[in-house]
Amino acid sequence: MSILAYIVLGIYSFTLLYVTVYCVMQIKLLYHYKRGIIKSAPAFSPKKVRALALADEDVSTWEEGEGEKAIEMDAADYPFVTVQLPIFNERYVIERLIDSITEFDYPKDRFEIHVLDDSTDDTVAITKQKVAEYKAKGFLIEQITRTDRKGYKAGALKEGMERAKGEFIAIFDADFLPKPDFLKKTIPWFKDEEVGVVQTRWEHINENYSLITRLQAMQLNVHFRVEQVGRMNGNYLLQFNGTAGVWRRQTIEEAGGWEADTLTEDLDLSIRAQLKGWKIRFLEGVGSPAELPIEMNSLKSQQFRWMKGGAETAKKMLPTVWRSDLALGKKIQATLHLLSSTVFVFVFAMGVFSVPLLLLFGNLMEKGLSKDFFAYFLVGLLAIIAVYYVANVSPNESEGNTFKQVFKFIFLFPLFLALSMGLSLHNTVAVLEGYRGKKSPFVRTPKFNIKSIRDKLSNTNYLNQKISWTTIFEGFFALYFLMAIIAGFYLQNLVFIFFHLMLFLGYGAIFFFSLSHMRMRS
Predict the structure, then answer these.
(1) Is 167 exposed, middle or buried (0-12, 13-18, 19+ CB in 10 A)?
(2) Residue 348 binned pLDDT confidence (cut-offs 50, 70, 90)
(3) Quick one: which H or E segment has residue 185?
């Protein structure tokens, strides 16, 4: 029994150490994020900072004198831009997407719109009618269809490049509603000839729609504030996020073009481009509104694609990163970036092994193990709390009512942790499939034109109606951790009680919403 107890303790401790190190390393990005804000503050008077903020300009990452270069551009200097809209079966949102693109306050003769339409439903007809409408108004707009979905989104973008005339390529997914000044706020940054990509921050049209959308927004805010800005300020490798950004055409070509051997073609091309010497400029102050998935199975399909694609890209690009001439610190940060999806594997294993560890804890205490042993790992929890607080509360403090923002964070953050733990089985399967090289189709995340709490999900044509084996096991693990909670009280050992409670709530919520959202009907 002692040997088994030590094996279980060793596995649990290793997984806990991995998660803790990952969380602590996020502090490095937080440091660079805050350092950028502090460093830029003396460059402007308070009056000028307020004026730039009112103009919706990003001052958080500027060095002295840097901000002005991206504010204005002479009309005669506007380069020709191709706006690519890769879509697949988006009947509910394609019209509003095209409408928003045609509202760009960029010279109409200096940009073209290519709707890369791989749809197999009536989206094709809806798009055709909308394209004809704007073509009659003088817009350079075209619907491009393919006979097959070879390469999925990457394949559509690659074939679209053959028809594109632009020196720069702007890309938007179907659920985005870019603002009219998008091109005027992004294109000027390419005056720096080393910049190959300009990425903007995702905003959330329907953040307040439900608890699920609020929790998604928390996670995305961390990526689009602390992580992206922190990596840029630290001179680490960033990523293009697949949408709401602009590429220099030359950068795509020199990096080898779009490749469809991973589900995250955006991350893959980003790494290849930066290894070729190109820079990615992230604009925290330029927001691009988008619709968050509103039901659990759509969220899970999105997570699966991101997690599996991240693992595929890590497997593909990590050897190249370590063979490159990047500095050691950059290689380490790039590795952590590419392995970020792997943390879910360790969270899942940590949860599973915590239950037998609870049952064997008495035996280990007899051998001298203290209940305080795991307290050392609380530093990881404190680190991740700091990162999420800064990303979700600090940017909103200027809006007033800081107490309300803090209270909201205190309420939502434990629920976010529970949801993340509940998704760990689903995401672990995705990561392992990615590393094993198992191929699967690009499953797009369905969107339903839900913009506010007043909107109702009445159109359910794209909803998944099949129960997956992972959903069944999520129900099993909810019961597994419920029994662990009961066992903790029975054994009078509450070391894991809060951990098991969050796991129970997380798996239980994922299981419940997965089933209930399948039953949605119009």
Answers:
(1) middle
(2) very high
(3) helix 182-186
Q: What are phi and psi of 521, to 5 degrees?
A: -130, 150
pLDDT score at 396: 60
Confidence bin at 418 (pLDDT 50/70/90): very high
Query: Reduced to 3 states, what is the DSSP secondary structure of residue 81?
Result: strand
> What b/e sequence results for 186-201 when a residue is b if at least 16 CB atoms lie within 10 Å of its CB, and e otherwise?
bbbbbeeeebbbbbbb
**What is residue 456's predicted lDDT score, i.e. its pLDDT?**
61
Tell me which amino acid residue 113 is: I
Question: What's the pLDDT score for residue 268?
Answer: 98
Asked if pLDDT for residue 71 goes beyond 60, the answer is no
Q: Is the pLDDT of residue 52 over 70?
A: no
pLDDT in tens, 119-137: 999 999 999 999 999 999 9
CB under 8 Å to 328, separation ≥6 — which residues? Answer: none
Give catalytic residues, as residue numbers.
118, 266
- Positive or negative torsion for Cα 50, 291, 225, 444: negative
- Percent pLDDT > 70 in the chain is 87
Q: 360 Cβ partners below 8 Å, 6+ apart?
A: 1, 4, 5, 8, 9
pLDDT > 60? residue 106: yes
The crossing angle, in degrees rounded to 10, of helices 94-102 and 123-135 is 20
Task: Say if CB 447 and CB 90 are below 8 A apart.
Answer: yes
Where does 41-147 have alpha helices with state H?
46-54, 94-102, 123-135
The rounded distance, in Å, linking the Cα atoms of 273 and 268 is: 9
Closest CA to 249 of 317, 189, 170: 170
Identify the burial level of 457 via C-beta atoms within 10 angstroms of its C-beta, where 0-12 means exposed, 13-18 middle and 19 or more buried. Answer: middle
**How far is CA 385 from each of CA 32, 37, 414, rounded to the nearest angstrom?**
17, 20, 10
* Domain limits, the chain: 28-215+238-292
Q: According to the model, what pLDDT value does residue 64 have? A: 36
The average confidence (pLDDT) of the chain is 89
Half-sphere CA count of 134, side-chain side, radius 13 A: 24
Helix, strand, coil percentages in the chain from 3-state DSSP, rounded to 5: 60, 10, 30
What is the predicted pLDDT for the residue at 462? Answer: 62
Mean pLDDT over 269-297 rounds to 96
CB 183 within 8 A of CB 170: yes
Check pLDDT > 70 for residue 56. Answer: no
Q: CA-to-CA distance for 431 and 422, rounded, in angstroms?
A: 15
Nearest residue to 277 (alpha-carbon basis) of 338, 312, 242, 325: 325
CATH number listed for the domain at residues 28-215+238-292: 3.90.550.10
